[in-house]
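ASSEMBLY PREDICTION REQUEST
Request ID: AP-0331
Submitted by: J.K., bench scientist
Number of chains: two
Total residues: 294
Priority: normal
Notes: Please return the full assembly, not individual chains.
Input sequences:
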Amino acid sequence: MTGGRASRSLSPPPVRKPMAEIRPISRADLEQGMKGPGVLCLGSLPRSKWSDDPDLRDLQELRQRLYLGLVDKVGTCGLVAFDDDGVVGFVTFMPKATARRLGFYSLPGDDKLESTLVVACIHVTPTKRGAGIGSTLIQSVKDWAADHGYSVVEAIGEGQPQYGWHASAPFLACGFEVVRDQWHGSWCGQVMKCTTRT
Amino acid sequence: MAKPLVELLYNAFCIEEVPPIRRLARQYGFPLREYNIWDLDPDDQVLPHHIRGKIRRVRSGEEGFFAGACFIDGEEVDWWQGFEKPFAAASEKADG
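STATUS: Completed
Returned structure:
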């Protein structure tokens, strides 16, 4: 009997490699660029990656300036998930006051403008989906929000696949609740929110 | 008949739809005015009424997600249905 006990204690617990590391997006990320299959629109942020298309170039500069402004103001503009392949997913967010000025969705009402964080976009590269990276990103947003004094996080997602926007389901699994359906022309999104642990 | 006026109100975080609208405006020879919502004050009386109204609605949270808005002769085009057809229709209308 004791032998069995000893063998159990001698066997090291299996080490599970984390599916992805999560960290905030930095100014250097935006200026120098990130590598990996999940970088998507963030990949076009550094000046070196800007398109030669004159119809896009001025807008890329504007977008870069907005992202850098967010980093200067609140410390980051989102989180990236990375593994051995590089960036495999990201989530971008901003304070609700900023989202309002940009016209991004946000729930009506002017209370908690300064203490609400709005998720702008979340993406996990298709080959890495199903491993919980999206849920980890969402949970990390909630943690980041709580650590930085935000008591509420708002997000929008598709209840049913329609336009290719991110789905509501991972948010709901992480404690968000649907507050209302929001029609935008022919597209309907679900506006969700959750409170953080603050 | 005068060429239809295209007005584009955009959110600089969502720029992907802007180049196609610029190209369509050039293709049809429609004059294009652009507005970056970040820079605008909805109380600015210089702005057209429908642009001011749109800014107010999206900033109030009543309209939800705002990637951008395209108006042809003051009438808003459904952002999620593409722009080819509305431009073609406006062109036909202008040509009588």
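REVIEWER COMMENTS: Residues 34-77 of chain B form one domain.
SIGN-OFF: pending second reviewer
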